[in-house]
Amino acid sequence: MVEHTVKSYDRDLDTLERLIAEMGGIAEKMVIDAVDALANGDTVLAHQVVAADPRLDALQREVEDLAVMTIARRQPVAIDLRELIGAIRVAGDLERVGDLAKNIAKRTIKIGAESRVPRAIVGLRHMNEVATELMKDVLDAYAQRDAERAREVWERDVDLDALEDSVFRDLLTHMMEDPRNISFCAHLLFCSKNIERIGDHATNIAETVVYLVTGEAMPSDRPRGRQETDIDVEAAGGDA
Fold first, then answer.
1. Cβ within 8 Å of residue 1, ≥6 positions away
2. How far apart are alpha carbons 168 and 189 in whole angstroms?
3. Residue 120 half-sphere exposure, CB side, CA atoms within 13 Å?
4. pTM above 0.90, yes or no
5. What's the CA gap between 134 and 198, in Å, rounded?
6. How many Cβ atoms from other residues are within 10 Å of residue 88's Cβ?
7. Euclidean distance between CA atoms 212 and 84, whole angstroms
8. What whole-number percentage of the chain has pLDDT above 90?
9. What are the residues whose beta carbons fall under 8 Å from the beta carbon of 141, sequence distance 6 or more?
10. 112: which DSSP letter?
11. What is the largest distance, in Å, between two alpha-carbon atoms of the chain?
């Protein structure tokens, strides 16, 4: 980033970078822990994921307050303004990623000792590996202001969409094989949608990185691996 004559301005930008980095670390860990808790029936870990969310919310508010205050004080233009707007956008997406991870954790707590189908979890684990890789890569792209890497993340989201389709079909098969699987697999359907939405937030951050670096918007039509559904899992997965 450009070094400014007013050193307090640089300190504000550095603070925003630090806050975003902390948010990214918390959000990534929440996503990984949430699916681990789901796979292992670990309600203790699930409660820890839920308990981590308030810190993420507080950090988002801190980012927004500092960015708005800096805009008011410095009245930045061009790249400086994009830096501040970008920080607000990225913080918002990371907060939503935390909510989605929390929703998965709440599903785990709700399932409790319910009868499980271990092989039904395999596809969700694979989805989660892809989603967390997208998150890691896009946060690296943000830290390095790497527009090309951000574009690669944006394009790779179709892989996660395709995996969700495959998981959806597998879970329906498990439900048809044995009606006793229906309740557990229905929970997993919502969890898979939450993981897919995490990928969508990674692409949002990728779009922000490209905008921040180039000043240009990405195409309005994202690559699609399948048709969208009308289910609002961010709401259905639990209270955000």
1. 10, 13, 83, 145
2. 7
3. 25
4. no
5. 9
6. 17
7. 9
8. 76
9. 147, 149, 150, 153, 206, 209
10. T
11. 69
Each residue of 200-236: b (16+ CB within 10 Å) or e? bbbbbbbbbbbbbbeeeebeeebeeeeeeeeeebbee
Nearest 5°: CA angle at 233, between 232 and 237?
140
Decide: 60 and 98 in contact? Cβ < 8 Å.
no
Above pLDDT 70, what percent of the chain? 88
Q: Is the pLDDT of residue 1 over 60?
A: no
Question: Tokens 């790249």 label which residue?
Answer: 79
Per the listing, tokens 């195409």 go with 219
Collapsing DSSP to helix, strand or coil, 117 comes out as coil
Residue 205 tokens read as 């951050």
Question: DSSP assignment, residue 4?
Answer: P
Give, to the nearest 10 degrees, the angle between helix 43-74 and helix 7-40.
160
Mean pLDDT computed over every residue of the chain: 90
What's the rounded Cα separation, in Å, for the pair 104 and 44? 13
Give the pLDDT confidence of 103-158 residue by residue, as tens digits: 999 999 999 877 677 888 999 999 999 999 999 999 999 999 999 999 999 999 99
Q: Kindly report the length of the chain.
A: 240
